[in-house]
Amino acid sequence: MPVKDQIKNFARKLVEEHPDAATLRALVRARKPTAIHFRDDGIVPNNPKLPALLYRGAVKLKGRRFPPEVIIDTLFATNGWARSWRDTVYDFVHYHSQIHEVMGVARGTARIECGGIKGRILNVKAGDVLVLPAGTGHRLIESGRDFLVVGAYPQDGTYDECTDTRERTDAIKRIAKVRKPKTDPVLGTGGPLLRHWRPHSSRS
Predict the structure, then answer these.
(1) Which domains does the chain have, with CATH numbers?
(2) What pTM was estimated for this model as a whole?
C-alpha cells in the first residue's frame, strides 16, 4: 500500500490498546504453511526461488478482547514486519519488485489470485496468513462485504507497485536483489519461513 495508507494506520495504532507478548503467543497456532511456487508467466515474473506461503488458521481471532485487525497487526510488528496497512486487496494484477509482503485476513472471506492469471486462486478466511515473496503477482477476485486484510513488510526493502509489462526486465533484476527477511511474520525467529526460503529451497 502507498505510504499515505501506512501513515494513516500508524496514527490509528498510537491510540489503540495492543495485546502483550504473552497474549499474542496464546493466540498463534504453530501451523505448517503450504508452500506454493509460481513460474514466470511472461507477464508477471513471480519469484524464481522463493515460494508463497499460506498459513491456514494461523491466528485465533474469535471471541477475543482485542479487534482481530489489532491482533494481526501487533503480531506482524512484534516479529519485525511493520509499515502496515488495513484494507482490502487491489482487484488488478500487481506485484512488488523490491520487497516481500505478508497479508493476514482479519475479517471475512475472499478469493485471491496469486501468481498471475496462470497461477492459482486461493480461498482465504479470517485467521489465514499469506506471505508473498517479491515478484509474486496477486489480485482480489471476490470477497465478502466485511473482508479486511492487514498487510505488512519486513524491515529491508522499498515499497513499489508494478502493473505494466514494460517494467519486467528491470523488475526481474530488482526481485533477485531483495534480501530474505530475518523473521517469520507469524512465528518469529524460529518460524518455518526461514526454512522454506533458504537459498537451496527446492520446488514442491
Answers:
(1) 3-196 (2.60.120.10)
(2) 0.91
